[in-house]
Amino acid sequence: MGEHVVVSASELSEGDRVVVELEGREVAVFRLDGDLHAYLNWCAHQGGPVCEGALTGTYESSYDREGNEVSLSWCREGEVLMCPWHGWEYDALTGECFSRRSVALPSYPVEEVGGDVVVTL
Ligand code: FES
């Protein structure tokens, strides 16, 4: 266990990610919505490199009982991480899997220290 400098903070702009190997594990660091997030690059489905997948959005549905209408709207653009192997989707801000709420990507503490992005394993 220890602290690891993964990249200079200036090299990780909003919406960027970097995947590095730390202590034998692939860890991805994202800067999203102004915050840093670090996850293990390992999908809970079959171990795919989830953190290398597309950052996309998702549809949110709503139902109007009186009009008996369902409407869909695109939301969360750039905050949904889609595994490139079979498409499982995770909330990139929390690591939570959308289709299986009891599943989440393992996460690690990450912060900026003296101009560097530091992950603690
Ligand atoms: S390994 Fe990620 S969706 Fe299958």
Describe what you observe in this structure.
The chain has 121 residues and is mainly β. Helices cover 0% and strands 54% of the residues. It contains no helices and ten strands. The protein has a four-stranded antiparallel sheet with strand order 2-3-4-8, with no helix packed on it. Strands 1-10-9 form a three-stranded antiparallel sheet, with no helix packed on it. A three-stranded antiparallel sheet has the order 5-6-7, with no helix packed on it. The radius of gyration is 16 Å and the shape is elongated. The model has no long low-confidence stretch (mean pLDDT 96). FE2/S2 (inorganic) cluster binds next to loops.
